[in-house]
Structure prediction request, 463 residues.
Amino acid sequence: MFLKPLLWFFLLSSLPAILSYNEADPTATTMEQFSGYPTHEPESASSFSVDTEGLKKQIDELSSFSDTPSPSVTRVLYSEMDVVARRYVKNLMGLAGLSVREDAVGNIFGRWDGSEPELSAVATGSHIDAIPYSGKYDGVVGVLGAIEAINVLRRSGFKPRRSLEVILFTSEEPTRFGISCLGSRLLAGNKALMKSLETVVDSQNISFFDAARAAGYANEEEDLSSVFLKKGSYSAFVELHIEQGPILEEEGISIGIVTAIAAPASIKVDFEGNGGHAGAVLMPNRNDAGLAAAELALAVEKHVLESGSIDTVGTVGILELHPGAINSIPSKSHLEIDTRDIDEMRRNTVIEKIHQSAITISKSRRVRLSEFKIINQDPPALSDKSIINAMQAASQELNLSHKLMISRAYHDSLFMARISPMAMIFIPCYKGYSHKPEEYSSPEDIANGVKMLALTLSKLSLY
Prediction:
């Protein structure tokens, strides 16, 4: 109940800013030289005014909608806290003068109509779900920062030619149903995913559709094809995000311009042995599923390093043993492996080597390889050169240093690239920390990212 007074206070306190958006800036100039169209652009990018304190407050407020205590954030798909956080963001979109709609799985869209609304829009956005005990900046900067970028453009007197749209993507994290980027995958028309959602359940045996309906989505329909977007629905998509790595901070660079997103793949592996008493079964007689898993984990590292590329990475993020007793030889083991590369063929070669190692290990240790399943094997995504050019121009106009770089983390942009030209903006984060409470980006770095996003959107809107 405490939310209602908070939201009313926020609404009332923001009315002057909303009303001011309706006033045209008499000093605004045209950008005909850039676009060939008589559309207003801010007189100077240096005049961009980011409400740094207001944005910081919004990030802090959103982090309070969590199932774990501060400074950690836990916000899982379709949970009560997720629903409340969504309402908070929709309210901010409304305050920014955006028209808001939602689709059947809860992707949220806030649109600022341009002077030629029939043209495909320019989109931006990210996610707000958070894995257990994570931080408050991952994804959130790209949603709240996008709304603030719209506010920045409105305050500057900018008038978009193409409509601008902010998207809050549903479930970028795989926490609840084991599916990453669920919302953006569906937007990209993933029919196999749509089919699999008919049977998928979470750890509490709650089905996807029961969870979605409890949160107010999916209604009575199980056909989610209404979520699909046609290729070309947007003329461009730009995502603002914390780097989730240490490079920008270590090199003292303000902005990362992402040129490619690595191709990720996930593998599940199960070994089955005989188990037995830890003291009674002698070493030569063992069929130890745990040691098979340990050997495969080391093989993952070996094959990744053999690729010869720094862009190839592999991680055994889950390793489970059964029965899990100190005095019992493991009879079963389960691994989940993540491997990524910007080169799809090179990544696939690593996956095949891991598979062959799993077969060899099962024979040498006399255990059964009961499952080797590739859960997903997504292609990489290359950023669009015209968007990269717009970003480079924006960084120069804003006097912000920038670096061309690769994203090795999953992002919704990976799947938006199947709908429209795409690129990403990275900002520094403290020691590269992410997915833990220590995750942090300074207000100054966030403000720089918002300015970069705002200016890039303005350029793309006029194209």
